[in-house]
Write a structure and sequence with these properties.
With about 270 residues, this protein is an alpha/beta fold. It has a domain of about 190 residues: Rossmann fold (3-Layer(aba) Sandwich). About 35% of the residues lie in helices and about 15% in strands. It has nine helices and nine strands. The strands form two sheets. Strands 5-6-7-3-8-9 form a six-stranded mixed β-sheet, with helices on one face. A three-stranded antiparallel β-sheet has the order 2-1-4, with helices on one face. Helix 1 packs across helix 6. The longest helix has 14 residues. The chain is globular and about 55 Å long.
């Protein structure tokens, strides 16, 4: 498909999932304003009794002193088990969000053991933001079921999720419906691997939604997606490094490995499969 047709198709999808946000005076790459609430995460070393226990022994967590946020959008990258989701859940815990996924108002039972780190962090705000949402791709099904339970008593529970059950929509549609209808407010949004439900085309649509939402909100996103990581107005923290450090998009394994495979597909397949 020619690139012009691809762009046209993506614009149509973008319009169908358009966010309603406060207008911004400028969205240029050079003068894009910064609207941040969470400025810093500080680990309270003095409270940790046994640094050899999980999750404190994870290299990225072990060497963590403080993590500063400089932009409206921040990505966490790293292999599974590197600590990025652990820190994300701990931040959600300190924000008062349900660590199984949701906001301050979503109360339902699901394992939240990962939030153990939360008691050993201090968040620095300016100003403090209570509005927001924590999205966990792995527990999204349970969150959707929780909304269904609320809607049995009051159908208005669906109002923030497109007016109907998230279970009645495809996985990708339900994610984008959540982003469109629930994420239009000023707040802090924590997203753990949102690409899990999104095709490459819809990841590109989601990029435009991130861009709109970041005008008035702050987003912290843990991801493996080289498409999402390509968002130009973001910082990227690499959790494969200890201590965690900022890295350029082109230096991430996600970019390098994907590019090398696409450029040398036959070579990699021969080496891996023969």
């Amino acid at each position: 498909m020619p690139e012009g047709e691809v762009v046209c198709r993506l614009k149509k999808q973008r319009m169908s999932f358009c966010l309603t946000t406060a207008p911004a005076s400028d969205s240029s790459a050079t003068e894009r304003s910064v609207t941040m609430y969470l400025h810093e995460v500080i680990k309270l070393h003095e409270k940790i009794r046994n640094p050899h226990e999980y999750p404190f022994h994870i290299p990225a967590i072990d060497k963590l002193d403080r993590l500063k946020f400089h932009k409206n959008v921040t990505f966490f990258v790293g292999e599974n088990g590197s600590g990025k989701s652990t820190l994300m859940e701990a931040i959600a815990y300190q924000c008062g969000f349900n660590t199984a996924g949701g906001s301050r108002n979503n109360l339902y039972e699901l394992d939240s053991s990962e939030a153990k780190l939360g008691d050993y962090l201090r968040l620095s705000w300016m100003p403090k933001m209570n509005e927001g949402f924590f999205l966990r791709a792995e527990s999204f099904y349970h969150f959707a079921s929780h909304i269904d339970e609320l809607a049995r008593e009051d159908r208005r529970a669906y109002d923030s999720y497109g007016g109907r059950s998230l279970h009645e929509q495809s996985h990708g549609e339900s994610f984008l419906s959540l982003f469109k209808n629930r994420f239009g407010r000023r707040g802090i949004y924590l997203l753990d691997e949102p690409e899990a439900a999104l095709s490459p085309a819809r990841q590109l649509v989601f990029l435009s939604m991130i861009h709109e939402l970041a005008r008035t909100s702050q987003l912290i996103i843990a991801t493996h997606s080289p498409i999402l990581l390509g968002y130009p107005h973001a910082d990227i923290y690499n959790f494969n490094e200890s201590p965690v450090r900022l890295t350029a998009y082109e230096e991430t394994d996600h970019y390098r490995i994907t590019r090398r495979f696409l450029e040398n597909r036959s070579f990699y397949l021969q080496e891996l499969l023969d």
